[in-house]
Task: inverse folding
């Protein structure tokens, strides 16, 4: 196996074996060439893609639709998955599960499964290792950006849960790009993964059941709108004035509240999808009646309020030592938004006891131990 040198966390060079390509990162053209080179008919490509997306198998050996010899050759050429389970924890009620997945270069990402009373199985997936956006309340932002994920590494998080669910005869129904990273800062691979998940012959997940979350990368929000896909967009606003928002979200210095809400209005206009505004409530920072009034007025100034839904999220434990507001303050905030005609939900994160709040995921050094201690 070929070897290459890479820098480890201590700044010294170490040798890392170059892995086989993961099948989810192999393009259709490359797979077609590979099949032709091995004397296989073109229809095998769809068989392989279908099996990779739908099978509960742990490796190539489980694709029993394929001849044994072909399975062996595939195993010698392509990795079955680009992620491996490092460790997994479940919330106290056993419902929400969080997995720490290891990538080929030793980095890790987190992904969360959130079942909803047998009606749907949502997964929250990561798009980057770490995140460059440095939001003050976010554990992932504290890590800084380490690298972007490939499309295959993004999709393989969904496959991971798909395999786990298969034993119970369920399937992943909804996918939220709300884990580690800012999806719109890894636009190409994220969109490639969305297209893979939407493929009716493989994963078959409707774009209406896919949500992309952003802290407000305005040009990429316009690019996403121009894709012409009815994907749901969730925008992390967290304050409706630039002074407060810039204090907790550095992105605001580049694209302020008005520019962001104007981009939201364009997205809604173009896609006809309702837009979620995420608002983490931080006691004494952004939770006053004045903040709520301003948020209501700002949303109303940027389009029909019926097209927006505000999710109020009391802050999870994390960096910045932020505190949750009292229940009375949260209720007052929600009531003010309702008076402005804005549908509002106060969302207590599922799986809070395992630090599963999206955008709050943290992979610390000594990862397995840190994750286990979250429960
Ligand atoms: S909240 Fe989202 S965008 Fe902000 S630092 Fe965390 S992962 Fe990045």
Result:
């Amino acid at each position: 196996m070929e070897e290459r040198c890479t820098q480890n966390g201590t700044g010294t060079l170490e040798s890392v074996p170059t892995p086989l390509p993961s099948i989810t990162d192999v393009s259709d053209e490359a797979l077609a060439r590979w099949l032709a080179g091995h004397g296989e008919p073109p229809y095998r490509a769809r068989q392989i893609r279908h099996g990779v997306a739908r099978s509960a198998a742990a490796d190539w050996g489980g694709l029993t639709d394929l001849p044994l010899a072909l399975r062996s050759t595939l195993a010698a050429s392509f990795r079955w998955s680009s992620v491996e389970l490092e460790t997994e924890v479940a919330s106290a009620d056993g419902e929400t599960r969080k997995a720490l997945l290891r990538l080929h270069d030793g980095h890790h990402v987190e992904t969360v499964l959130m079942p909803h009373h047998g009606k749907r199985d949502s997964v929250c997936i990561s798009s980057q290792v770490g995140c460059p956006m440095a939001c003050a309340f976010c554990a992932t932002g504290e890590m800084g950006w380490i690298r972007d994920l490939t499309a295959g590494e993004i999709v393989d998080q969904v496959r991971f849960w798909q395999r786990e669910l298969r034993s119970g005869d369920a399937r992943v129904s909804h996918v939220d790009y709300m884990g580690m990273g800012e999806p719109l800062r890894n636009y190409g691979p994220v969109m490639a993964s969305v297209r893979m998940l939407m493929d009716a012959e493989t994963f078959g997940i409707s774009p209406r059941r896919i949500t992309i979350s952003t802290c407000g990368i305005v040009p990429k929000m316009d690019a996403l709108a121009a894709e012409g896909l009815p994907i749901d967009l969730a925008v992390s606003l967290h304050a409706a004035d630039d002074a407060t928002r810039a204090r907790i979200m550095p992105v605001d210095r580049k694209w302020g509240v008005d520019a962001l809400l104007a981009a939201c209005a364009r997205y809604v206009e173009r896609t006809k999808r309702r837009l979620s505004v995420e608002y983490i409530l931080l006691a004494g920072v952004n939770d006053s009646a004045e903040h709520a009034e301003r948020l209501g007025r700002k949303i109303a100034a940027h389009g029909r309020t019926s097209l927006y839904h505000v999710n109020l999220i009391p802050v999870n434990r994390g960096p910045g030592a932020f505190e949750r507001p009292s229940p009375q303050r949260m209720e007052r905030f929600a009531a003010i938004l309702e008076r402005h005609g804005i549908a509002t939900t106060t969302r207590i994160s599922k799986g809070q006891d395992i630090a599963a709040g999206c955008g709050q995921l943290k992979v610390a050094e000594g990862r397995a131990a840190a994750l286990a201690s979250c429960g």
In short: Residues 86-374 form a domain with the TIM Barrel fold (CATH 3.20.20.70).
